[in-house]
Amino acid sequence: MNEAKLTFDALIENEPFARCVAAAFVAKINPTMDELIEVKTIVSEAVANAIIHGYENQKQGKVQLIMQLEDNELTMIIQDDGCGIENIAKAREPLFTTKAHLERSGMGMTIMESLSDDFQVESSPGTGTKLTIVKKFKGHGGHESDN
Questions:
Q1: What is the mean pLDDT of the chain?
Q2: pTM summary value
C-alpha cells in the first residue's frame, strides 16, 4: 500500500492544488482519462465543501487529504475540523444547499457519491466532517476490452 497525507489551509485557492496532488498520486497506476477526471472531481467537490461549508464562519482552518492506494483501489479521506453537518441525510439529498446565495448547486455530495464505489460521511455539529471515499480502477491503464 502507498499512502500520502496532505494538510493545507482552508482557502478556496488551495482546492486546485489538492486536485492536482490527487491526480499525480494515482498516475502511477495509469488510470483512464475518465477515471482521472473522476478522482479530480471527487477531490474538488470534497475540498470545496470542507472550505465553504465546514469553515463558513471561521477565518482559518485546515483541510486534510489522506490517500491510500492499494492495487487498483484508491481510498481518499477528506476531513476538516469545521462546524460539522447537522443532518447528514438532508445534506446528501440532490439539490440541497445551505449556500444558495453563493450560487451553490447542492449537488456536491451527489456527484461525489455517483463517481465513487463507496462513499461514507461522518459528522456532527461542532466536530467537523470526515468523508471516506473509495474509487476502484479498471487497471492496465483502462486498456481492457469491454467486448
A1: 86
A2: 0.85
Q: CATH number of the domain that 31 lies in?
A: 3.30.565.10
Catalytic annotation, residues = 45, 49, 104
The answer as to whether 143 is a domain residue is: no
Give the residue numbers spanning the domain of 66. Answer: 2-138
DSSP notation for the chain? -EEEEEEEES-GGGHHHHHHHHHHHHGGG---HHHHHHHHHHHHHHHHHIIIIITTT-S--EEEEEEEEETTEEEEEEEE-SS--S-HHHHTSTT--S-GGGT--S-HHHHHHHH-SEEEEEEETTTEEEEEEEEE--SGGG-----
